[in-house]
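Re: export button greyed out
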Amino acid sequence: MKPSEILTPIKQRYGTAIQRIDRLDDRRLVLHVDAGALKSICRFLFRDLDARYIAGIGADDRPYSGRFMVAHNFAFDRDGLLASVLAMLPADAPEVDSIAGEVPAASWSEREFHDLVGIVPRNHPNPKRLVLPDGWPDRVHPLRKERPWNDRPDGYDEDRPFAFDPAPPGCVVVPLGPFHPTLDEPAHFRLYVDGEIVRGCEYRGFMVHRGIEKLAESVLTYNDIPMAAERICGICGCVHNVAYAQAVEQAASIPVPPRAEYIRTIMLEIERLHSHLLWVGLAGHILGYDTLFMHCFRIREPVMWIAEKISGNRKTYALCLIGGVRWDITPELHDELDQVLNRLEAQWRPLVSALLEDRNLRRRAAGIGVADRALIKEQGLIGPVARAAGIDIDCRRDHPYAAYDRVDFDVILAQDPDVWGRISVRAREVFESIRIIRQCLVKLPAGLLQAPIADELPIGRIGMSSVEAPRGESHHWLITGENHRPRRWRVRAPTYQNLQGIPAMIRDQRLADMTITLGSIDPCFSCTDRLETVDVRTGAVRVCPPEELRDRLRQRWNEPTTP
Amino acid sequence: MSGHLHEILARGLLQAGAVLLAAPLAEGVMRKITAVLQSRQGPPVIQPYYDLLKLMGKEDLECGESPWMQRLAGWLALVAPLSVAALWPGIGGQGPAAGDAILLVYLLTLGGVATLLAGLAAGSTYSLLGISREMMTMMVLEPLLAIALLVAACHADSLQLADLFGGAIYGRSGHSGSGLLMLGVLVFAFQAMVSRRPFDMTEAESEIMEGPLMEYSGPKLALLQWARMARLVVSSALMVALFWPGGAQLGFPWAALVFAAKTAAVILAVTVIAATHVRYRVDQAIRYFGGMLLAGLAALGLACFGF
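Workaround output, generated via the alternate export path:
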């Protein structure tokens, strides 16, 4: 289907409720609609046209249009189309009908814009706070334009504990996290356990927000943001770096030189390689198979070295600026990368065939953490979680970016919607990444690394970019703005959607399977925790009371550094 | 009689001391072999001694539900396998002995009971989860050990340890059917008896954060870890004593060396299996043990009728 073919039924059905349609290009669509029709249109896209829900965005647009803005993004994966359904809300009553009842995948996004922008989703099925701590004062919304980036509002009670829902009768509460040996980052799962069986859970995360989105729209400029964006995640940083740059390039119609596109593809695939190799090892560790962990890390190490040779860093490559890349693949690096890939393939192939034939491992991993097609559709689950269930989606092929439309690769699928399927998909995707890098090395065209940009970037344009991270689709949405920075930049990391599927995936299975189920989505909490204010909650040291530690840290933060 | 008693006491102390000193070395060798299998360099083989020393020197924190019970559990865990070592009727069972099979079963079960006590005394959610798993395992596993000793008793026509050890399970007259069946059962259940992977779900670090051990640190943790090492050595020696006769007639010191070598071989097998398996879930493990238990009962039946 072309954009026009998707638009026809929407136009027929909603007619005047659609105010304007912007076709950013053949693969990007923005529908400006009446706020009253938003819910109905979203349901139509999600149910009747079978679009995949990506993310919801709330924005404070008052300085520019005098109104608030809310948008819901959908993907038509078979048609290679991303659509944003956008409505404006009055400044004095920023309320909109919640779509979470119709589109369950929108639940977190709506709770998030309620917390951060103060747009109320009416009749939300679970209107609890998501991002802000419970002690944060009501009616203070950090992403509103009048709040400064380093805001610390009066009445913020930092020590107030989270208010949890009551446990179901007959269940014991088992707290998992914020600190647990297999959670590498803080997040809290309050598990309701009946014997060894988990009956449900409540999630509280967002404990380490860094306010990156707020910083981007108040302090940083266009070319600073890629470096902040890649610090969203310690493992798939390059994904955010590229996704942001592409969103700006699309909004401002900046053509990227082909050589830069190929280099972006190479670095993204190097990142997928080391991420998947790490994950297979970690899965082994969680299941008590440390030998697998050790071998994965041994095989992975040369990938880190070559990344360091190319970019100067094992991680955090600082690859993109708007319109290009900063690092070149020299002939010497070209040969070395080729050798690294050969060695990697030679070592990974026997390990994978042993792994996929390990009956013990299969017995342990099969049938747990099940995410069936219905759950994947309802919660918008993505990446290897979806592909393991046989759902054929991959942004690299469906919404091609960088040089992915010029290389040949297979989308790896499995027919096991469980932890075993995810192990199998990730283990085999490594070979496709190797294949992609090899083709890029052969085809790498000569030319510029950076497009010349003569003028200031246009203002008020919308950009959308989806990049297939190792964990699934990373989606960036932004509006360009004044002072060399976007007005609003929203990041939806893959874990943000996949985590919403966890309560259903762990229900009625054993506690022993909790950590590997959570591990199987390859969670990246830092990706999820990317928003708002500096939260210096460091209470772990006993000799120094937490309050004192906090005050000291705060003092250092506020003092200008003395040379 | 008093000379006899002196001999038993002296031998007992010597044997318990030997196990106490050798256990960390066995652990060190295990770690080294594991490291080789994982293509790592690994720590020096005497690292467990340093670890225990370091823990012994740390502050003795009291943080659980019942501090005195925590201390008791630590000591009990260590004393149980050492008592088994002390009661050992010499290599090949020719020495004088003070115990019988019933006492041995009690002492071996005491190790598991100590783990239960340790978890209960700590009282945290994860400790309790750990001991519920330990309890499930114990209920199926302990009878298996008792059955093995009973099969041996049937063949030897005695409950005295001195008669049971030295390969009694095969019968003094060649290889019996029940003995072979029992050997098979114990070989498959042995990883669980020493709670090593794939049967270490009681302490699964990546699921329930060491379970019963979670609240322990310093000297009490040292006791529990030392007990775990000692249990491995004693259980391996027990396997050798029941199923792997030979070499006892060589006389001192060769008999002892041969016995130690055979025990080391069992520990080596445990290490290799532990390094190459995924941890089982407790329900999978229980189903597995259930099968073992049935086979064990069959072996006992056979032994009763003289096969």
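The CA atoms of residues 127 and 212 of chain B lie 4 Å apart. The button fix ships in the next patch.
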